[in-house]
Every structure is written in structure tokens, then in C-alpha cells.
Amino acid sequence: MAKMSSVFLGFLLTLVVYLFFGRYEFYGLLIVGFIVGYISQEGIVGGMWNAALAGAFGTIVSAILFIILITISGTALMGVLGGLSGFTISGITSLFAVIYEIIKYMIVMGITGAVGGALTKQKN
What we know:
The chain crosses the membrane at residues 7-39, 102-120. Pfam families: DUF5518. By secondary structure, the chain is mostly helical. It has helices spanning 4-20, 25-40, 43-73, 75-78, 83-93, 95-120. Helices cover 85% and strands 0% of the residues. Helix 3 (43-73) packs antiparallel against helix 6 (95-120). The longest helix has 31 residues, at 43-73.
């Protein structure tokens, strides 16, 4: 079961990494996945699940913010491709890129989340 507090924190950290540290995205995702897995304290599977959810949510919101930003800033410059038609066109064409990013974020953050969860697993 997912701990929403750790997923939400991971989601916010994923947005920070994606939006501000794009050059070091892979290393940032490793660190964020580890933090989420460690905070969740649910073992290997729980840490992996929480980190993968945080990565997926971060990817989806980042993609939506990027499409909206391009749509708003490109309105005056792009003519027909601005506004609602530009939003629709950019949303459809970037669908495969977003799916690729979701899978990448889930795998990278899931692996390091499992490591973080394994370090906090308490023995009964």
C-alpha cells in the first residue's frame, strides 16, 4: 500500500529535479527515489512502489506544465499553433515522449526506492 506522505514528498522533489536540475536529472532521480523509499519504511516492495508512484506523478505533472508553458508562450509567435489548437497538437505529439518518461522515472526511482526501503525494513 502506498504511503501518500512519502509519495507526495517524492512528487514534489521529482518536480524540482525535472524543472530546475534537468542536466543532472538521472542523479537527482536516484537520490529522490532513495529518499522516498527510506521515508516510506515499508521494505523493499513498499519502497519501490512508493518511489515509482512519485516518479509517475512527477512526470505527468511536469509534462502538463511544459505543454501549458509552451502553449502560453508560443501563442503570439506561432499564430495558428498557439492557443487551444497548439495545446491539442502538442499534447497528441508528445504522448509517446511522456510515456517514455513515465517508464524511465518509474524504473529509476523504483530501483533506488527499493534500496532505501531495504535499509529501513524493521525485523519482527
